[in-house]
Amino acid sequence: MNRLYIILFYLLIIVFCGVGNDAILPIPPRPAEIFKTKVILNPDFTGKKAIYDIVNSNVIDSLQHDTLYENCIIFQVDSCVANKLYVKPYWSFTGEYLNIIGWIEIDEHIVTYLNIYDERGIPIYEYPSFSSPFFLTRTNNMEVNVLNCNNIGWIYTSFTDDFGNKISGWISPIYQCPNVYTTCN
Do residues 85 and 155 lie in contact, with contact meaning Cβ atoms separated by under 8 Å? Predict the structure, then answer.
């Protein structure tokens, strides 16, 4: 019995005090903490958006905004492949996920809003990384088309800035706003 107490005593010391520098390990992020790209089916789009079971295959469903209750469709993107997105759609107003998962094509109806709080402008990156070269641009265009994305929340877009320049590049998750009601501005 004394041996059990001694073992428990040492285990408690190890758990609470650690053993050397190796005892303090970083806690890996849980899947819910990893950023997911979210894009919007353009609120002005009145048609239906097809969802495919696999890339370039059978249409399994089509989605349309609920215009009666002003409930738009937002897509949580789980994967980006070429010009296709693997998505979980949900309603913008209620946050309720629809009972469907599948692939959609990136086209002119897939958008996001820019989160423009900094008067200096929005940083547009050459690559989807904060260590990438970037430049600042200003635009009053809150809505931008999504042309591509990666699996850590960055989107690639192209738009015209306030000075008439055609801008293309990557926008970090910080400057995206998939909210059809506030547009984060």
Answer: no
Asked if 139 and 116 count as a contact pair (C-beta separation under 8 A), the reply is yes
* HSE-up of residue 154 (Cα within 13 Å, Cβ side): 16
Burial label for 170, CB within 10 Å (0-12, 13-18, 19+), is: buried
CA distance linking residue 54 with residue 41, whole number of Å: 20
Q: Which two tokens stand for residue 35?
A: 């950023």
Cβ atoms 123, 129 nearer than 8 A: no
Report the distance separating Cα 15 and Cα 171, nearest Å: 42
| Per-residue pLDDT tens over the stretch 10-51 | 544 444 444 443 333 333 333 443 457 889 999 999 999 999
Domain spans of the chain, in order of start: 34-177
Residue 152 confidence (pLDDT)? 81
Beta bridge partners of residue 69, listed in sequence order: none
Calpha distance 148→88 (Å, rounded)? 17
Q: How far apart are CA 10 and CA 3, in angstroms?
A: 11
Q: What letter would DSSP give residue 101? A: -
Percentage of residues of the chain with pLDDT beyond 90: 43
- Spatial distance between the Cα atoms of 174 and 176, rounded to a whole number of angstroms: 6
Between β-strands 148-149 and 102-105, what pairing exists: parallel, antiparallel or unpaired? unpaired
Note the pLDDT of residue 11: 47
